[in-house]
Amino acid sequence: MIFSFLFGDANVQIRLQNGQKVQGEFVGTYMNHVHILVEEKIIYYACDDITSITYSTILRFDYDCSINTVTADILFPPELDPMTGEMTQMLPDVFNPDIPKPTVQVEAGGVSTEQTVVLDNQKDLLYLKKKRNPAAAGMLSFFLNITGSGHLYAGGGNIQVWYRSIPYSLVLVFIGLHTEKERDKFADGIYGDPYEPPQHLMMAYTAAYIGLIYDSVYMTRKYNIKLHKEIYDYEIKKVSELK
Fold this sequence. Notes:
The protein is an alpha+beta fold. The protein has two domains: 2-77, SH3 type barrels (Roll), CATH 2.30.30.100; 131-241, no CATH class. 39% of the residues lie in helices and 22% in strands. The chain has eight helices and ten strands. A six-stranded antiparallel beta sheet has the order 4-3-2-1-5-6. It has a two-stranded antiparallel sheet with strand order 7-8. The longest helix is centred in the last third of the chain and has 34 residues, at 199-232.
């Protein structure tokens, strides 16, 4: 209500590059982000991710991202800190000048330069915090195979995903125990171990081992796709579409 009073009733529709559309009251631009009011809550989007802003359905809304039309004090007013009992301003990381922004090396025309990478909004921060690393799942399955740790990690602690590791683990345990049992029978002590597992058992063991690793990596990517859909409110079906 306060923001509506301050900035009028500039109802706009923002169209993002990913196809998402958002409606709200235009508040202003600050630090290369457009800020709008949606149900009494300030939401912001990186200007580079915006395709267009319109009002009255079809009319173009003019804005300039190079200019700060509002201040941080207006967008993020001080709040009561229950730990200290004092009023404290809580700035999102992307707007906090005390937090260094990551840089990447970019080569153009043979010249290497550094560019600052800015996360477009809080959804990016949440996604990066919760997403799973397929390589980490694969390594857990490689080193802690029969425990199903790779699948447990891949599913974010979801026990249903961990259940998928059980068939692979049972095969590995069965073949391992069978091999040790046969070796005990044929143990020679002096002349070494003459027992060699049958080729079909070795192939089954290898297949189960590789299958366990591959499936944990697959479930990690599936988890990331589901997480992306929940956070960004639009569906993707390929890993290459992930941010």
